[in-house]
Specification:
It is a multi-pass membrane protein. This protein has helices at residues 2-45, 54-63, 70-75, 82-92, 100-124, 129-175, 180-188, 194-207, 212-222, 226-241, 245-301, 306-311. The protein is an all-alpha fold.
């Protein structure tokens, strides 16, 4: 009987110790999970959204009706085949929440709006209403194409403009002892635009378990800016070979600034002949005409005018 009691007491204390160990392990795992969730949530908060203009809100409003015409838009794919549209939307950062199907439908919505506007102007008797009635639907078809192309070009230019400062700041953080992901996460909180969007998405993918090289490849596929691609390729090479990234970033930033300065000088040199041409053929003749006009007016209406000489 005493043996049974002693065994029961030992088992009680054993299970009690095991329960405390498991509870401690559970608490640690829970805290780790909370930290991970907070990091992911913080990365999502870093995705700052620029204030939308009236035009942007209007386009988003119209795009809601585009899904109903997506099938028709995919059949009428002149200068807008779906694979090309997909690449273009990636480069533009998927503006206005457009998918490939919604973009195809948005073309038809703009055609319908052009037709309605042309009809309205025709019944109002607007000048050239017959021409506008025919041309406005065609213009409406191409408006989404040129709009997204312009967005893509502007986004890539902004990406290149902010890249040198971004690389310098990340390089300083790396030299101070921060890890690459931590330095990028800290720096992107001070940026708004394509740089912030791309690297925020990269950090989020890494934290969700996407392989680093695959995340780099996706960034290359979303952007065709040469300088940005060189940076990402250097990151891929650094992850493979263990090359120090801080020095590479600093050198690339200096090289980009040098190239930008040379491009500005080149544009200024090209602008000089144009200014000379405008001065020679527009401004100078206008000045001569003004002087000649003043002389003629003085001849007819001045104190020593021709009329006074003949009257005397």
């Amino acid at each position: 009987m005493d043996g049974v009691i002693l065994t029961s007491i030992l088992l009680f204390w054993l299970f009690l110790v095991l329960s405390f160990v498991n509870f401690y392990s559970y608490s640690k795992n829970k805290d780790t999970l909370k930290v991970h969730i907070n990091e992911v949530a913080m990365t999502q908060q870093l995705m700052k959204v620029k204030k939308k203009s009236t035009l942007d809100r209007f386009i988003i409003f119209l795009s809601r009706y585009a899904d109903d015409f997506s099938a028709l838009g995919e059949r009428i794919n002149f200068y807008s085949e779906s694979p090309d549209v997909e690449v273009l939307l990636k480069k533009a950062g998927n503006p206005y929440g457009l998918s490939v199907a919604r973009f195809q439908g948005f073309k038809i919505v703009c055609v319908i709006i052009g037709f309605i506007l042309g009809t309205f102007l025709y019944f109002l008797g607007f000048p050239f209403a017959n021409v506008l009635f025919v041309t406005l639907p065609f213009i409406g078809f191409f408006i989404p194409i040129f709009l997204v192309r312009g967005k893509a070009k502007n986004r890539q230019e902004l990406l290149r403009r902010d890249l040198p400062d971004f690389l310098d700041t990340v390089s300083i953080s790396l030299q101070a002892g921060s890890g690459l992901d931590g330095a990028i996460k800290e720096v992107i909180s001070y940026y708004i635009g394509p740089i912030q969007e791309e690297f925020s998405r990269f950090i989020q993918e890494i934290e969700l378990g996407v392989p680093r090289e695959k995340a780099y490849t996706e960034m290359l596929n979303r952007n065709d800016n040469v300088d940005f691609q060189n940076v990402i390729k250097s990151l891929i090479q650094g992850s493979r070979l263990g090359v120090p990234v801080a020095t590479t970033f600093r050198n690339q930033a200096n090289e980009m600034r040098r190239i930008s300065l040379e491009q500005v000088k080149e544009k200024a040199a090209k602008a000089s002949p144009k200014v000379t041409l405008i001065t020679s053929f527009i401004i100078a003749p206008l000045i001569m005409l003004m002087i000649l006009g003043l002389i003629i007016l003085n001849m007819f209406y001045g104190e020593d005018s021709i009329f006074k000489l003949f009257s005397n």
